[in-house]
Amino acid sequence: MNYAFHSEAEAEFKHAIDYYESCAGGLGYDFAVEVYSTIEQIVAYPKAWVILEEEVRRC
């Protein structure tokens, strides 16, 4: 399974990283690591998450 960010979601993600980094040094990096770690878990186990409707799941 592959994943990709929608361009607007990617821009929002990068903005969030910058915001957290401005709050405390390294916090933006930690946030990004957690997001990518979660994405890796979703890709590895796509059916492990709570079903919201049909093929839509929430992690």
Features:
59 residues, mainly alpha, two-stranded antiparallel ribbon, 2 strands, 59% helix, 12% strand, elongated
A few lines on this structure:
The chain has 2 helices and 2 strands, in the order ααββ. It has helices at residues 7-23, 27-44, and strands spanning 50-53, 56-58. Helix 1 runs antiparallel to helix 2 (27-44).
Number of domains: 1
Per DSSP, the total helix count is 2
- Rg from C-alpha positions? 14 Å
Q: What is the helix/strand order?
A: HHEE
Q: Show unreliable segments.
A: none
Structure description:
The protein is mostly helical. It has one domain (7-58). It is 59% helix and 12% strand. The chain contains two helices and two strands; from the N terminus they run H-H-E-E. It has helices at residues 7-23, 27-44, and strands at 50-53, 56-58. It has a two-stranded antiparallel ribbon with strand order 1-2. Helix 1 runs antiparallel to helix 2. It is elongated, with a radius of gyration of 14 Å. The two termini are 16 Å apart. The model has no long low-confidence stretch (mean pLDDT 96).
SSE inventory with pairings:
Elements: H1 7-23, H2 27-44, E1 50-53, E2 56-58
Antiparallel strand pairs: 1-2
Helix pairs in contact: 1-2
